[in-house]
Design goal:
Blueprint (H helix, E strand, L loop, with lengths): L2 H17 L3 H14 L4 H13 L3 H14 L6 H18 L4 H8 L2 H6 L4 H14 L3 H13 L8 H14 L3 H7 L7 E3 L4 E2 L2 E2 H13 L2 H9 L4 E4 L9 H23 L16 E10 L15 E8 L14 E3 L5 H4 L6 E3 L6 E5 L4 E3 L8 E10 L3
Antiparallel strand pairs: 1-9, 2-3, 4-5, 5-11, 6-9, 6-11, 7-8, 7-10
Helix pairs in contact: 1-2, 1-3, 2-3, 3-4, 3-5, 4-5, 6-8, 8-9, 9-10, 10-11
Length: 387
């Protein structure tokens, strides 16, 4: 058998063991792979997967970050997906944080010191462990140290900004909380206009909805109906039609009008992704479809400077005046289950033709609504093109 196919087969076996919780056998296979070919990137990825499955999230993140810094060719989508997974899972890991787990996290300090790029990962994990235990001063110190050491990175900066806002609200300093996440200022809300791109907003929305619905990724979702929430990326890259192009021009004009404001109000003004107004950037559009109880949980956009939405189709929501169903929600605590604290947030009732814009580090989510009609939102990210 071809050596590469042999390695592929071993990785597949190891993943099966991970899925059934047999980490010991998975580790043995991983050791074989490392011995046979240390440069096999899937073998390195497998090691991180084992750590993640074992709930050793801090070690997994440190391992992957080390790979990114020493072997740039390893920075693939598979690695990034595995790396990003440590953060949604982190809340569950931290739910049972005790002094013992805090000490276990501290064991990573030497490794972080050896590889400076890994320091922010260590600090955010340590800060969250302190935070859960109510040791707010120590948590704040760790979070701030993370920000001070992450000028070249962006994976965890947004999480720390949101955690600092939650922490300050917990200790009763709402002014300090708004310094980090200002839900009074953002999102910027642009109410529907009578016309857009030279036609009535109703006519434009109907044309845009029809065009996006026929795009390959979106059409596949509506036909397969595999989920009640979906994102179709690269909307303005994969053979866009005239309505997408017209909306792209509107987005570009909108972004140029607010980039300076977002930079001026950034809580991390020196950060190359979240603080400095990008000299050059890409505008990447996507379509989000929701149906039934479909919704997006709290998340941030860690690869860009700002985010915007345009509401194309918004079906009526039953009892909308008395509930938040169908609203978009800003500022929600990303680690609410772990921290046991429900912070203040801002909800907005979307209507067709409404446009929103906000900093990418700001957490946002949608409140489920029960409807048998699809809701379509076209959004965009402003991604800095760094020198």
């Amino acid at each position: 058998m071809d050596p590469t196919r042999q390695l592929d087969a071993k990785v597949s076996r190891a993943i099966k063991f991970i899925n059934v919780g047999n980490f010991e056998k998975a580790r043995r296979i991983h050791e074989e792979i490392k011995t046979e070919n240390v440069d096999y990137y899937e073998g390195v990825l497998l090691g991180a997967m084992i750590l993640l499955a074992s709930q050793r999230f801090s070690e997994a993140a440190l391992s992957l970050q080390y790979c990114f810094r020493t072997r740039p060719e390893f920075e693939t989508n598979e690695f990034k997906n595995c790396f990003d997974k440590s953060y949604p899972e982190l809340a569950h890991y931290m739910e049972t944080a005790t002094l013992q787990t805090l000490e276990e996290i501290k064991q990573n300090e030497n490794g972080a010191a050896e590889f400076p790029a890994s320091v922010p990962i260590y600090k955010v994990h340590l800060g969250l462990a302190y935070h859960i235990q109510g040791r707010f001063d120590e948590a704040r110190e760790s979070y701030l140290e993370c920000l001070a050491n992450c000028q070249e990175t962006k994976y965890w900066v947004a999480y720390v900004i949101n955690l600092l806002a939650v922490l300050e609200e917990q200790v009763g300093d709402e002014k300090a909380a708004r310094k980090w996440v200002d839900i009074d200022t953002y999102p910027l809300v642009y109410e529907p206009k009578e016309t857009i791109a030279g036609m009535s907003t109703k006519e434009f929305n109907e044309g845009l909805y029809a065009e996006v619905s026929e795009s390959p990724k979106y059409k596949h979702w509506t036909e397969v109906q595999s989920s009640n929430w979906f994102i179709a990326s690269r909307l303005n890259r994969d053979n866009p039609g005239p309505f997408v192009r017209m909306l792209e021009a509107v987005f570009e004009e909108r972004a140029e009008s607010v980039l300076d404001k977002i930079a001026e109000t950034s809580p991390a003004p020196e950060h190359e992704c979240f603080g400095r107004r990008p000299k050059n950037y890409r505008l990447e559009m996507f379509a989000a479809g929701l149906r039934g109880g479909g919704h997006a949980g709290p998340h941030v956009h860690s690869d860009c400077f700002m985010v915007g939405n345009y509401y194309v189709k918004v079906p009526e929501v039953e009892d909308a005046e008395n509930t938040d169903r169908g609203c978009i929600e800003y500022g929600k605590n990303l680690f609410q289950s772990a921290l046991g604290f429900e912070n203040k947030r801002r909800t907005i009732r979307p209507v067709e033709g409404m446009m929103l814009a906000w900093p990418s580090y700001m957490s946002h989510s949608t409140v489920p609504c029960d409807t048998d009609q699809d809701r379509m939102v076209v959004g965009y990210d402003i991604e800095p093109v760094l020198d």
